[in-house]
Amino acid sequence: MKKILGIAAAIVCLLVLSGAQLPQIGPKPDTKPQQQETIDTRAIETAPKPQPKPEGITTNPDNPIDKDAKAKGTDAAQPEKQGPKLPSQQSLEEQHLTIEAESDAEHSECVRELQSLGVVFTDLSRIDDGNGCGIDKPIKVSEALPGIKLKPDGVFRCPVALALARWMKESVIPAAAVAAKDQGAIVSVNQASSYICRLRNSAETGKISEHARGNAIDVASFSFEKGDDIAVQPRREDSTLVGAFQRTVSAAGCLYFTTVLDPESDAAHETHFHLDVLQRKGGYRYCH
C-alpha cells in the first residue's frame, strides 16, 4: 500500500513540474458570444443622449410640481421660461403706463346719453397724476339720476356714469320697489371710491387699479326716503327681501358693467360692489 501511495505522489509531482493542469470538477460555464457583446455595445453607443438644459429655462418655485420635485431632490419639475416681470410683480412706478386717449366723438355721444337720462354732472379738465393715473376726459357726477344723489360726488369717465345710471334706472330702482317698498324711493347712492391713483385693492405691488384710470366706482349702500340704508355686505345666506335685493342688483350689474365684484368675491369687497368698465378681448365680462 505504501508503495502505491508513493507512486501516486511521484506522478502528481511530475505533473506539477511539467505545467499540466488538473481536470476541473463539473462542466465549465459558457461565456457570452463575442457577437452579442458587439451588438450590446453598439446599441448603447447609438442610444439618444439627454440634451443639455436650454439657457433661459428655470423651474418655478410656486409650481406645485416644482415644489414636489424640489422636496424629493429630483429634476422632475416642469421648466418655465424666464422673461420680464409680470405686471402683478411690478410697482406702479415700474409699469410705465400712459393715460388712454378718449375719442371726441364717443365722449360726445356718451354725454348726450347722460343728459337724456337726467344725470347731473360737470366736465373737468384732464387729470394726469403720473404713472398712468389719470383721465383724458373726466366728469364729476353729483346725481346718478334725477333726485338720486351720488354721495360724495364721483369722478370718472363718462362710460362709468352711463353704466351707473342705466343700472340704477333699469335694475336697482325696480328691485328696491319690491324689496323695500315701505321705505319709499331711493334718494342717494353712497359710493366708497371713484377716481384714485392706486394699485388694485390698494396693494403695494400689482396691476394698476381701474379706479386709477377713471373706469370704476365702488357702491357701499343705498339710502331711502325713510328707514335704514341698505348696506352692501355678505348676504349669501340672507333669506330676507333685502338679501334678495342685493343678490339681484349684483347679478344685474353685469348687464351694464364689464366687472362686478361683490361681498361674495373676496375679503377686499365685503363692504361694497366694485363696478368697472374695463374692456377685455372678445367682450369678456368678469362677474362674481
Would you write up a description of this structure?
α4 runs parallel beside α5 and α5 (158-179) packs antiparallel against α6 (241-252). Strands 3, 6, 7, 8, 9, 10, 11, 12 and 13 form a nine-stranded mixed β-sheet that branches. The chain has a two-stranded antiparallel sheet with strand order 1-2. Strands 4-5 form a two-stranded antiparallel ribbon. The protein has six helices and 13 strands. With 288 residues, it is of the alpha+beta class. α5 (158-179) links the parallel β7 (148-157) and β8. The protein has helices spanning 2-18, 34-46, 64-72, 104-117, 158-179, 241-252, and strands spanning 57-59, 79-81, 120-123, 127-130, 133-135, 138-145, 148-157, 186-193, 216-224, 230-231, 259-261, 273-276, 286-287. 30% of the residues lie in helices and 22% in strands. The radius of gyration is 40 Å and the shape is globular. The longest helix has 22 residues, at 158-179. Keywords: Signal.
